[in-house]
Amino acid sequence: MIFDAIVVGLGAMGSAALYQLSAHTPRVLGFDQFSPPHTMGSTHGDTRITRQAIGEGAHFVPLALRSYAIWRDLEQRTGHQLLTSTGGLFVGQPNSTVAMHHKPGWLDTTIRAAEQFGIPHQVLDTESLRRQFPQFRYRPGDIGYFEEEAGFLRPERCVTAQLEQARQQGATVRTQERLLGFTATDGGIRVQTDQGVYHGRKLILTTGSWITESLRQTPYRELLTVNRQVLYWFGIEGDYTRYTPDALPVFILNERNVYGFPAVGGPEGGIKLATETYEYATSPHTVDRTVSESETRQMYEQYVAPNFVGIGPQCVKSVVCLYTMTPDGDFIIDQHPEHRDVLLASACSGHGFKHSAAVGQVLAELALEGRTGFTISPFQLSRFDRS
Ligand SMILES: Cc1cc2nc3c(=O)[nH]c(=O)nc-3n(C[C@H](O)[C@H](O)[C@H](O)COP(=O)(O)OP(=O)(O)OC[C@H]3O[C@@H](n4cnc5c(N)ncnc54)[C@H](O)[C@@H]3O)c2cc1C
């Protein structure tokens, strides 16, 4: 059989693409080298922040809004809760130029995007912050952007739900199967795996941090950087109910480079906190997946103790995860530079999950119709070309 599309990599982007494709045609195949959801890539760790006014750039807002609608529809179809709206609190200094995901002035851009798209929000002064959210320590002059519909997604559940729906709609899903290579044919693409050969009209590569392997022979081989990140769950020492989703929104302390989630694992489950680090480049093959005691201690001393009230040094759990970064923090959603029937969607630069449902729709539209109604020019590889 010739598939209408073959999706390689069934993490956030690939499971979404397969689900969206299967709504239009059952002649779609998706496969992954592991059994998603798994802990080897970028889509694990219980929760992901979602928000609508996107500080990484207003061009992301349509993707975020469309993803909200898709998650809510998927919840109806599957009966699983995927998105919990807790509100989102994003704290920083007014007019700060501090970057997040390589985007300077992130907090200001967030506020402007909310105004531009009419996204319900409030801007709180330091006094209001202290009164409403005493779980944090504030700096003089801090302001808080509070977005009502922000919250968290359950990444593993989202992947499972989309793969299940794709299967039900007729898609073929294969796990523990690794892509070895692909070549152009008359009618599309011949795909070689460690288990066999498939033919597709289109090939979609959503291989996350492994995408660098598919760019090796192209001018973009040096473009992407994979960074090791660690997620920590620290024990709650004070009143647990102050940290549950009813009382605590998802949060980002912008200048202090720390973000986190309300506690979802019960009184012993801890509160999930993380920082972002771009110091060392790594790869999914060579990354150190163990978390040392010294880095846990450093996380507590540098990021937890100075910024939070009632969170102790005991680390309940930690896990390593991978960011795949472009130089500008935008994604790559494009045709492969050397194969017109191959699409790439990856390098989600540490903030891709919230957009992934809509990126799946974009990929399905591009693969089946050759065009999409979403603006994807900011995500094309040609933006990195030098004249
Ligand atoms: C610590 C951390 C925190 C984050 N927090 C947030 C957040 O709060 N909000 C947010 O929106 N985003 C967040 N992100 C980003 C978001 O999670 C990622 O952008 C997204 O999950 C990336 O999904 P992906 O599908 O590109 O990659 P992955 O989920 O890694 O999927 C790639 C898949 O391709 C498969 N694959 C690779 N090569 C092959 C091959 N040769 N053959 C077969 N299969 C292959 C892999 O096995 C894998 O399953 C965070 C990321 C990390 C690491």
Automatic annotation (TrEMBL):
It comes from the Bacteria. Transmembrane segments: none annotated. It holds the Pfam family DAO. InterPro entries: FAD-dep_OxRdtase, FAD/NAD-bd_sf, MTOX. Residues 4-366 form the FAD dependent oxidoreductase domain. The keyword Iron does not apply. Keywords: FAD, Flavoprotein, Oxidoreductase. Its cofactor is FAD. GO terms for molecular function: flavin adenine dinucleotide binding; sarcosine oxidase activity. This is N-methyl-L-tryptophan oxidase. The lineage of its organism: Bacteria, Pseudomonadati, Bacteroidota, Cytophagia, Cytophagales.
